[in-house]
Amino acid sequence: MTFVNLTQNSLSSLSDNITVPGYDRNRVTTGIVHIGPSAFFRGHLAVYVDDLLNQGATDLGICAVSLKTNNVSNALKSQDCLYTVVEQSAQGKQARVIGSVKEIIVARDNPQVVLQKMASPETKLVTMTVTQGGYYYKNGNLDFDHEDIKADLTKADEPSSTVGFIVKALEMRMQAGIKPFAVMSCDNLPNNSFVLRNVVLAYAAQKSPELRDWIANEVPFPSTMVDRIVPKTTPENVDQHKQEFGYGDAWPIYTESFRQLVIENVPAEFPFPDFSKAGALHTEDVGVFELMKIRLLNGTHMALGMIGRMAGYTYSHEAIRDPAIRSFIKGMMDEMTQTLNPVKGVDLEAYKATIITRLESEYMKDELARLARNGVDKMDSRFLSPLRDALSRQTPCERLVFAAASWIEYLKRAGPGFDIQDEKAVNGALPEKARASGSTGSAILANKDIFGSDLPSSRFFQAKFKGCLTRICNHPDNILEALQFPDNPEPANTPVPGVPAPAP
Ligand code: CS2
């Protein structure tokens, strides 16, 4: 059997059950530059934009920019930047061809083309999904010691980093008298665009105070809460897609039907797309939504990823169906909930129940290894900052401590056959350090960039952490047996007898 490949010309020959762009892509101009065209972006923001184009917008086409790699560009270029999003649920699979990405550029090969795009008056919005590493954020400021930042500051006309590109393009606009674009992060990072604004301003200040002030006064940086589970596309997905839908797509995106986008308000006079037409929520206070999602979904993901994988499971739906893991996860979510403020319009109990249902979906085939990756970057937002809140609110946190302690065991297991997918951990020899520190995890806890100095010196935390890690180490072949928790946990911060007070 022969299959057509997805292109603009082949759209009309696809079967009727495939949704295709209902707008003339030739009439769509570029209004958004997106840095980091990850699977998540293609399954999330690009779909919202596709909705807006279907509703008649013509000035919101996306120019996708890969900073270094050309794999997305190679896959999408031959299909006119079209790709399929397959939504899967118990109701079946719905395939939809997304047309919002109009062009794709690899910045390393064409930095000037990227800058021209960003500086063009047509571009009103620059968005990004680059994961935490792309923010060059360290101890509350721009990491001036990072090689990328050092290099960009010396040859700023040809940047290579996210921050370098954003600042250079804004400088070009300022010098040309063109209004700036808005900058919107779509990464899972608390206060995502606020963090981005801080690093951008710090970098711009090195170039000129005038540029820094112009950015500070003129550029909106709306923070967002973004949510949609987008597992890694596998070679099997590519084959399966061809068989099921009758056409070839080099890189289809398999995802769930759920999606959510919450965006901080932008001043009304700024030409910002109205994403509410595509189901997003524009709000004054996005922070509460972000915290809710990062803790309840991403925190749960990471704990499920580590513990589930160490228990021998491969996928999210398998792990969450294990009664011991499920009960642990539900208990941990309850502990997380007590660290949150109420979220207007959201019933947190219903929100948690929806997350469990999403995790259970066997259609997703979401790998636990994906959920547990990049722990160095994620430990803080997923477990340590909720733990700090639990300690100050004096709410129960036994399971949160267990999740943090299980990271030490996860690190220990790194090696052939157990890829932890965490470059920073591997480069920093954290697996070796974890193995060397036995059941105390002391060499890892001593890493102030990750744990800070407050948590390791809390007597309550110390004792609980040691208790959890000891239990884990006592059950080397079955981590599930270490999941034992008291029915009536003591509130956080209760002094624990026998644990020495921290050094002054
Ligand atoms: C995952 C996320 O890798 C991770 O940290 O938890 O990619 C998660 O699937 C998305 O944030 C869901 O919105």
Topology of helices and strands:
Blueprint: E1 4-5, E2 30-35, H1 39-43, H2 45-54, E3 61-66, H3 71-77, E4 83-89, E5 92-98, E6 101-106, H4 111-119, E7 125-128, E8 137-138, E9 141-142, H5 147-154, H6 162-176, E10 182-185, H7 192-207, H8 209-218, E11 224-227, H9 235-245, E12 247-248, E13 253-256, E14 260-264, E15 281-283, H10 287-310, H11 316-320, H12 323-337, H13 348-360, H14 368-371, H15 375-393, H16 398-412, H17 423-427, H18 430-436, H19 442-445, H20 448-451, H21 459-474
Parallel strand pairs: 1-12, 2-3, 2-7, 3-6, 4-13, 7-10, 14-15
Antiparallel strand pairs: 4-5, 8-9, 11-14
Helix pairs in contact: 4-6, 6-7, 7-8, 10-12, 10-15, 10-16, 15-16, 16-18, 16-21
The structure holds D-mannonic acid.
D-mannonic acid binds next to helix 10 and helix 14.
Question: How would you describe this protein?
Answer:
With 504 residues, the protein is α/β, with parallel strands linked by helices. The protein folds into two domains: 4-139 and 182-187 and 225-283, NAD(P)-binding Rossmann-like Domain (Rossmann fold, 3-Layer(aba) Sandwich); 287-482, N-(1-d-carboxylethyl)-l-norvaline Dehydrogenase, domain 2. The chain contains 21 helices and 15 strands. A hairpin with a 2-residue loop joins strand 8 (137-138) and strand 9. The longest helix has 24 residues, at 287-310. The N and C termini lie far apart (75 Å). The relative contact order is 0.09.
